[in-house]
Fold this sequence. Notes:
Blueprint: H1 12-22, H2 28-31, E1 35-39, H3 43-55, E2 58-62, E3 80-81, H4 93-103, H5 110-129, E4 155-156, H6 162-180, E5 183-186, E6 189-197, E7 200-208, E8 214-218, E9 221-224, H7 245-252, E10 257-258, E11 263-269, E12 292-296, H8 299-306, E13 320-321, H9 323-327, H10 337-349, E14 361-364, H11 366-379, H12 387-413, E15 422-431, E16 434-435, E17 448-450, H13 468-483, H14 485-488, H15 502-521, E18 525-526, H16 527-542, H17 548-568, E19 569-570, H18 580-604, H19 628-631, E20 633-638, E21 647-652
Parallel strand pairs: 1-2, 1-9, 2-5, 9-17, 18-19
Antiparallel strand pairs: 3-4, 6-7, 7-8, 10-16, 10-20, 11-15, 12-13, 12-14, 14-15, 20-21
Amino acid sequence: xxxxxxxxxxxxxxxWTQYRSSMPLVAPNNKRRLEVIVVGTGLAGASAAATxxxxxYNVKAFTFHDSPRRAHSxxxxxxxxxxxxxQNDGDSVYRLFYDTIKxxxxxxxxANVHRLAEVSRNIIDxxxxxxxxxxxxYGGLLANRSFGGVQVSRxxxxxxxxxxxxxxxxxxxxxxxxxxxxxxxxxxxxxxxxVRIDGKARGIIxxxxxxxxxxxxxxxxxxxxxxxYGNVFYLSTNAMMxxxxxxxxxxxxxxxxxxxxxxxxxxxxxPVSGDYQSKLTLMSESLRNDGRVWVPKKQEDAKxxxxxxxxxxxxPEADRDYYLERRYxxxxxxxPRDVASRAAKTACDEGLGVAPTGLAVxxxxxxxxxxxxxxxxxxxxxxxxxxxxVKELGTAVISEKYGxxxxxxxxxTGENPYIYPMKIYPxxxxxxxxxxxxxxxxxxxxxxxALGECNFSDHGANRLGASALMQGLADxxxxxxxxxxxxxxxxxxxxxxxxxxxxxxxxxxxxxDRIDNLLSVQGNQSVESFxxxxxxxxxDYCGMSRNAEGLRKAVQMVRxxxxxxxxxxFVPGGNNEYNPELEKALRVADFMELGETMILDALNRDESCxxxxxxEYQTEDGEAxxxxxxxxxxxxxxxxxxxxxxxxxxxxxxFENVELKTRSYK
Length: 666
């Protein structure tokens, strides 16, 4: 299979403008003839459905939540990037493009990333017009803060609730189209399969999660915006319902899964505290603006902290190792997520961890509190404030910037982070891999498009913080409304598809047979127990670090677990009713197949890059060692099923505008 990225010609900075001005269009009167299905109502899905409806297409939008507002985009905390250079600190479209390419360890497609940087500027204007309450400075202008992997301040934010506020803006736009009738909303419906007719995506099979009824929905094109697959690891920062099923069902129908082993480990998560946990809680990367990461220099101090005999307050400054500042002086605590995560793991592996499990480092705000307090006192005319006043004033500033995050931390851990340094440890967060798409965001299945975290296109081997919201809204508001026309312009004379046709009936039967098969096993083990075991395998052997021996072992373990699942899983209840255990079983079954493919992808990639760290391929000082000669490509996997090995297809990456070189944040 030859993969064509369909990247337009011309200079990089002119590609999108020229292409957008010359691509095929669908006239307004013809848009009314066409139907589009959008699966998912997070930032990418809601913005796409709203914009396509505004343009005049007939849109059907699907979410398995009771409301589009429940989409996981709501959980994003720290901010959204945009190259507006409001801080006058040297930012530009090119710098955002370069930072993203470099942050992804040179495993992204140049043209897609540059387009993302270009349209990022429009997103902020769109969101402000919707009333998104971005933070503002003293003069009323929009404020910015820094995030990891960059040396400018380009991140717009609304305290620690940026995703929620942006989603409410997109939801407003979506609700308007629903009220006008251009978008028909299907809440509590889960897509279980793609329907293909003559090779093209022409609809979906969805399950009404309240009644259990299977439904057929037809359209001229299908847009997937269903998020990432981090929950293959069981414990992650994702909501428990996040899954891969929409994307993976497309893979089972012939779509390619690209770079599935590229998983982002986020460095600032509340550490695991016990086996009872079903998910982890993220603390925003924005905290690294003011928090300093450290561990004790002495193992005996770390041991005393783990045993509860000391706290972080008992360790004098001279006995603290601010290891990110020491190892990466140019970026300090704001190195990219993959770099910060591996550094934390290294510190804990050396016996310097500060949680009872040994798996935690400190994120300390004491310096920031004192710095802000002195500044606040000085601005009030008090040049010689006492320490108590400085702490009070500084705490108020930190509370204003991060208060909801600090409250969340205290509720979960029982420790006051204004007094004691936070304990954090890396955890699975975002997935850079996803469905392979071309420049139009179209998969290798004609008429099937993928947006946001659901596709692979923009982040390479490691996503920079605050870029997920940027990509989701860029794809939904400013890319897909144009590029879907390249397909639909050829479909204006195609009549509406009959959901009672043979292709729909056959696909529905395949879904029903799959459900009946799971219900009929009536084994002895819960779905949850299988998911937990799968997650343990994935984290232990395909997590923060990997090696060939462990990956080969993991492939066999996942295959054996999958066979055991189909022989001994117990799914209570039936199909024609509300049955969350059945929903979970279908999703875990897909995670099993995805997990196998992820491991094979990691085994195939004999290099370290970004979030993919192979222990055999590292520099003398423990940094990732890429192999640009042999692995500068997108690994797009075909999954034939029926016991056959996944098949690798390659899209070679061509870099004409940046120099491939070893990343350095020192």
